[in-house]
Amino acid sequence: MRVSVPRSIRNTLASAAVMGLAISAQAAEAPQWQAIQKAGVLRCGAAVAAPYVMRDAASGQYSGYFVDLCRDFAEKVLKVKAQFIDTSWDNQVAGLQSGKWDLAMALNQTPERALAVAFSVPATDYQVSLLVNKENPKFSGAGSAIADYDKPGVTIAVMSGTAADKAVSAVVKNATVMRLPGSDETRMALMSRRADVLADANDTNHLFALANDWAREVFPKPALAKQGVSFGVSREMSAADLAVLNIYLTQRRETGEIEKLVDKASTATNAADKPAQ
């Protein structure tokens, strides 16, 4: 049975719906930087992966070029302090969604993540590379094809939840994927030969290969992943607020300042990896 609703009530309901949409739109466009300036703190989610984000075990202090960028943006642009919140790669996106931090540092741009969060323009570019022991007989004559490493009896170590994890998991059919919580664990797995291959960001792997002459770096062809490395932000961030961060990063990248920060972080990482004399 169809119930007739008076026009006055229909008009009231329609007006309420329009008002609700307007309020939702205003909430979505709420100025996040203004709220952060009022709070006095920019919270940055920090999952460790050298040279992007590093943490000194003794002091708890953070370093790395994304840490430098986060601190500089907080202090120079927003005029607030930066607070670094320890997390894992598995929790970077969830923490951003739940409001535990305002920026997720060094987040690779992937379509899957874009369903949950938004991204700044890339600060740098990313590619997955492989590290192997030059003396490993399993890879005698191996080239750059992923099939040369995707074999039964081969174990590939990755940091759980990273872009490298997703890229490797999508193509590996025969080797075993060993998912570990952090870069120290994946490196130790390769060094102890519990893993035959370490799949990670090319910047990170290149630093490790420079510090260990037994390691060989491989760039798979075709590439496993080529992505921008950005700050992750809330999908509710307004276009105006996102533009502030994007302008900051674009200017720093085009003037070569980010490249200098990368070199600084790389030098610090290699110095820390050298054994005491």
Please mark out the parts with pLDDT under 50 across 5 or more consecutive residues, or reply none.
12-28
User: What's the CATH first level of the largest domain?
Assistant: Alpha Beta
CATH-level-4 superfamily name of the largest domain: Periplasmic binding protein-like II
Which structural category fits the helices and strands?
alpha/beta
Total beta strand runs: 12
| Helix share bin | 40-55%
Shape: elongated
Average pLDDT number:
88
Cα(first) to Cα(last) distance is 89 Å
In DSSP terms, counting alpha (H) and pi (I) runs of 4 or more, how many helices?
10
**Helix and strand succession?**
HHEEEHEHEHEEEHEHEHEEHH
- Rg of Cα set: 23 Å
Please report which band the strand proportion falls in: under 5%, 5-15%, 15-25%, 25-35%, 35-45% or over 45%: 15-25%
Regarding quaternary structure, what we see is: single chain
CATH topology of the largest domain: D-Maltodextrin-Binding Protein, domain 2
Overall domain count: 2
Q: Architecture of the largest domain, according to CATH?
A: 3-Layer(aba) Sandwich
Largest sheet: 10 strands, mixed
Summarize the structure.
With 277 residues, the chain is an alpha/beta fold. 42% of the residues lie in helices and 22% in strands.
Describe this structure in words.
- Strands 1, 4, 5, 6, 7, 8, 9, 10, 11 and 12 form a ten-stranded mixed sheet that branches.
- It contains ten helices and twelve strands.
- It has two domains: 142 residues, 3-Layer(aba) Sandwich (D-Maltodextrin-Binding Protein, domain 2), CATH 3.40.190.10; 100 residues, Periplasmic binding protein-like II (D-Maltodextrin-Binding Protein, domain 2).
- Strand 8, helix 6 and strand 9 form a beta-alpha-beta unit.
- It is an alpha/beta fold.
- It is elongated, with a radius of gyration of 23 Å.
- Helix 8 packs across helix 10.
